[in-house]
Amino acid sequence: MTYEHLRLERHGPVGWLVNNRPEHLNAMNARMRDEFADAWLELDADPAVRVIVHTGEGRAFQTGVDVTEIATDGVGMQRYRDSVERFDLHFTAWHQHVAKPVITAVNGICCGGGFHWIADADVVIAASDAVFFDPHVSIGQVVSLEAIGLLRKMPVEPVMRMALVGRHERMSAARAYELGMISQVVDPPDRLRDEAQALAETIARNSPAAMAATKRALWGALETGLTDACRAGALELASLWGHPDQEEGPRAFAEHREAHWADPAGPGHPADA
Amino acid sequence: MSAPYRRLRVSREGPVGWLAFDRPDAGNALDAVMFDELERAWRELDDDPSVRVIVNTGRGPTFQTGLDLVALRDDPAAFRAHARRTRDAELRFTAWQLGVTTPVVAAVNGVCAGGGLHFVADADVVIAASDATFVDPHVSVGQVVAYEGIALVRKSPMETILRMALVGRYERLPAARAYQLGIISQVVDPPDRLHDEAQTLAETIARNSPAAMAATKRALWGALEAGLTDASRAGALELASLWGHPDQEEGPRAFAEGRDARWEVAAP
């Protein structure tokens, strides 16, 4: 498909998904929302892509739903409301059950609904001048889904503070790093894409099959109690027994060479459409 | 005293039971003998009324480096038994897996890699030497991360754990960063003071009511099992379980009289 508000690129084993609506601070209108659904599936299905990096063009990473557009185009608002009420969303990697590792590289302002792509990524890094805030309640909107994800992933108090202080305060990349919301601050900021590419290439050296099962096991830990999550995780562990990567990994390590992983396009767990 | 340990050093210092991995020439990696001995040692220390707190550490330059695949493959019966327990979620080598009621302090003395993270995830309190590092190489050698990552995800900022799991052996988390993130609560510098600091911390914890700490452990670990409201209901029962217990009277009295409390020591 052709994308109007997103840009997809491939650099080596890394697939890039770039928010490309900079004149609107990358706010998500109805078309962009549909494009996300396709873009995640396209990159996840591409056998040449081992790791996905998500970033934004311009001075913002993402500023959430373009309420103006959705509310004024006639049908957009009702369609959006229906999808939210049914929790039938398709614009993040988590919504789309992406099996590959996903790195979010926050290039600037991340606010409101932009937190969806922080909450739903595996790894998050940011430029040193990136800022985070959640203006929902300052404009009479509810904070819900993206914060629910964040609450399970990081200290709760900063998320509640952001949700309730709204647009009147911003969190710096440095503070987000202290709290473990992100794992790397890139300075100077214009090195963000190079650092993201380097990190993605490092991750791409690991077994795709093992990483996919690891993602299912660890994200599954947010779904149930600890004991039940361990039971489900045990099945993910055992699912790789007999897989060629499980033999190849230790062998390559012993022989001091890079491992040759099985083709990840082989039998697996395809994302649902 | 039971049979001697070959892969562990189990000792007592005052009210503190020490459980040290003792296979330094193999990075303290887990083999079949160590699996069996860990189950025995946790139970022995937990059942010993003179042991109020358990410290878990490693001898030599590493803390724990996880499964010794080579050694286990030389012992097919043990390998099959471990595989079955892994698959069926019936592992029995950490304090959490065994339901240890005594407080457990992990004192990470060096590299903690892969399956070594089980002992960080499943401890109540974790401290580390300033030169300790954490790394999870599983996916770099074609293996899946599950148990230890699952528990760490529930206890720590998740992004850190996912990054460690997906970057694999190409990056290490230093003790200072683990401290910032709350994965550990104390960095000991210089590193050779780790043993003394762990003993001091354990003796401090040992001054508290064993019965109250055991119920507290059940209530707080239970919080990881259920939603907030359900966990609070179960926790309320743990609270009430101590009403009428001698420690509940003795504690306030000793505090008012400016003396150390004399706690009831539960029979094993």
How would you concisely characterize the structure shown here?
The complex is a heterodimer of chains A (273) and B (268). Chain A is α/β, with parallel strands linked by helices and 273 residues long.
Order of strands across the main sheet of chain B? 1-2-3-5-7-10
- The secondary-structure class of chain A comes to alpha/beta
Q: How would you state the average pLDDT of chain B, rounded?
A: 94
In spatial order, strands of the major sheet of chain A run: 1-2-3-5-7-10
Q: How helix-rich are the residues of chain A, as a percent range?
A: 40-55%
Largest sheet of chain A: 6 strands, mixed
Fold blueprint:
The complex is a heterodimer of chains A (273) and B (268).
Chain A: E1 6-11, E2 14-19, H1 30-45, E3 51-56, E4 60-62, H2 67-72, H3 76-85, E5 102-106, E6 109-111, H4 116-119, E7 123-127, E8 131-133, H5 145-153, H6 156-165, E9 171-172, H7 173-178, E10 184-186, H8 192-203, H9 208-220, H10 226-239, H11 244-254
Parallel strand pairs in A: 2-3, 3-5, 4-6, 5-7, 6-8, 7-10
Antiparallel strand pairs in A: 1-2, 8-9
Chain B: E1 8-13, E2 16-21, H1 32-47, E3 53-58, E4 62-64, H2 69-73, H3 76-87, E5 104-108, E6 111-113, H4 117-121, E7 125-129, E8 133-135, H5 147-155, H6 158-167, E9 173-174, H7 175-180, E10 186-188, H8 194-205, H9 210-222, H10 228-241, H11 246-256
Parallel strand pairs in B: 2-3, 3-5, 4-6, 5-7, 6-8, 7-10
Antiparallel strand pairs in B: 1-2, 8-9
Helix pairs in contact in B: 5-6, 9-10
